[in-house]
């Protein structure tokens, strides 16, 4: 009859600790890496449209758009800067989209503040409900309305997001981390108020005595506008064509812009400032490929060009690192069997060929980077204690 001695009880306890500690440690490491990957800064703020032309005394409006990409946005500290010698507040100045920020009330603080130096500041929160986090691209934050008060003398005056603007995430252990990666400004061209130049047009009043009278002729002045900013500029790594991917190359893509005759393409490495590519792409091109060095950040600036000049650049940057990249090969569709026609005097129904099921294709996943120090420490401590206990057991 077997008896459970103290040595056996200690041994069983150590084995139980190992069997419980190791799976829990591996699971928590995976969860932590997933949250960290999602909280990497990828959110952008932009004005739409990116440029406008008005006359002195007219209002100019811009929508403020947020693109969270992979982030969950819970709070926006918004600071807008403009030239107060060219523009001033019109009406409310800044109206907030309460569908995106349901807790905002224009009759209660905090409300937008307008600084005489040309800054507008407001804090916007989605609330404590995680389902209210902003996750969809092209979400409107609000609408900015300003009035033109002075001419820009043929140039433009910018409207920008101040460098202190922040977009915070509500995700897990990355709570309240600033995930704003880039912003797209706007520009306004302000012209003098149109003037009417009178000219004399002779109008005959009789067959023998023509009497000149004063008439007004307005001659319209044609305007020429440069293209607006290129939208959806995106750097992707690695560069893939179908199921073939190269980890030595990345790609930069963008949306085609109506009226553009070509695109100015500039790609540079952020850390060293080296310009990798600086040339022109045709109007039919919306994607270029370039060589990269792994673990370096690359920025892509795309500007549309027409006969009037070059518009403002749409920009995006990305750290080209193998860690965290997940590739999904595109399955190859199988051919559909063609039916065979059988000529018979008496029609005999035949069974339809069974559809072909495309083979399952495995999705390779590159493992995430190393776990956090605290979780590794917990797992390692459990293993060390188990080893020490086992040695002590056999000694006594």
Characterize the biggest β-sheet.
Answer: 7 strands, mixed
Estimated helix fraction: 10-25%
**CATH fold-level assignment of the largest domain:** Immunoglobulin-like
Structural class: mainly beta
Keywords:
Immunoglobulin-like; five-stranded mixed sheet; single chain; 396 residues
Structural notes for this entry:
- The chain is mostly beta strands and 396 residues long.
- The chain has three domains: 54 residues; 152 residues, Immunoglobulin-like (Sandwich); 98 residues, Immunoglobulins (Immunoglobulin-like), CATH 2.60.40.10.
- Helix content is 14%, strand content 38%.
- It is built from two helices and 24 strands.
- Strands 2, 4, 6, 7, 9, 10 and 12 form a seven-stranded mixed beta sheet that branches. It has a five-stranded mixed beta sheet with strand order 5-8-3-1-11, with no helix packed on it.
- Helix 1 packs antiparallel against helix 2.
- The protein is elongated, with a radius of gyration of 33 Å.
- About 8% of the residues have low confidence.
Summary?
The chain is mainly beta and 396 residues long.
Sequence-ordered SSE layout with sheet pairings:
Blueprint: H1 6-38, E1 43-48, E2 51-55, E3 59-67, E4 73-82, E5 87-96, E6 113-115, E7 119-125, E8 139-148, E9 157-161, E10 166-169, E11 180-184, E12 186-191, E13 198-204, E14 210-216, E15 234-236, E16 239-241, E17 244-246, E18 249-253, E19 262-269, E20 275-282, E21 287-291, E22 296-306, E23 309-310, E24 314-320, H2 373-395
Parallel strand pairs: 1-11, 2-12
Antiparallel strand pairs: 1-3, 3-8, 4-7, 4-9, 4-10, 5-8, 6-7, 9-12, 13-14, 15-18, 16-17, 18-21, 19-20, 19-22, 22-23, 22-24
Helix pairs in contact: 1-2
């Amino acid at each position: 009859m077997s008896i459970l001695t103290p040595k056996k009880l200690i041994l069983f306890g150590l084995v139980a600790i190992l069997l419980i500690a190791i799976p829990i440690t591996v699971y928590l490491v995976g969860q932590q890496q997933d949250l960290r990957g999602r909280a990497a800064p990828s959110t952008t703020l932009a004005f739409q449209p990116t440029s406008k032309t008005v006359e002195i005394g007219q209002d100019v409006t811009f929508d403020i758009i947020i693109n969270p990409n992979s982030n969950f946005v819970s709070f926006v500290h918004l600071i807008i800067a403009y030239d107060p010698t060219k523009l001033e507040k019109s009406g409310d100045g800044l109206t907030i989209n309460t569908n995106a920020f349901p807790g905002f009330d224009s009759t209660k603080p905090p409300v937008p503040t307008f600084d005489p130096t040309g800054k507008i500041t407001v804090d916007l929160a989605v609330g404590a409900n995680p389902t209210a986090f902003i996750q969809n691209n092209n979400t409107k934050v609000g609408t900015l309305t300003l009035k033109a008060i002075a001419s820009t003398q043929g140039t433009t005056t910018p409207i920008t997001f101040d460098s202190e603007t922040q977009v915070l995430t509500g995700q897990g252990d990355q709570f309240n981390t600033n995930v704003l990666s880039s912003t797209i400004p706007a520009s306004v061209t302000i012209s003098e108020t149109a003037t009417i130049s009178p000219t004399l047009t002779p109008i005959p009043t009789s067959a023998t005595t023509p009497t000149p009278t004063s008439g007004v002729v307005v001659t319209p002045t044609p305007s020429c506008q440069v293209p607006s900013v290129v939208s959806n500029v995106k750097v992707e790594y690695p560069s893939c064509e179908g199921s073939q991917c190269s980890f030595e190359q990345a790609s930069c893509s963008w949306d085609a812009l109506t009226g553009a005759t070509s695109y100015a393409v500039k790609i540079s490495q952020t850390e060293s400032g080296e310009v990798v590519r600086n040339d022109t792409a045709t109007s039919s091109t919306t994607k270029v490929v370039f060589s990269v060095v792994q673990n370096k950040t690359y920025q892509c600036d795309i500007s549309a060009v027409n006969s009037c000049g070059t518009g403002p650049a749409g920009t995006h940057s990305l750290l080209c690192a193998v860690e965290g990249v997940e590739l999904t090969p595109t399955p190859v569709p199988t051919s559909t069997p063609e039916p065979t026609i059988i000529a018979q005097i008496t029609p005999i129904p035949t069974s339809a060929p069974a559809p072909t099921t495309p083979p399952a294709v495995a999705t390779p996943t590159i493992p995430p980077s190393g776990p956090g120090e605290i979780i590794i420490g917990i797992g390692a401590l459990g293993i060390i204690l188990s080893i020490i206990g086992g040695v002590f057991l056999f000694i006594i």
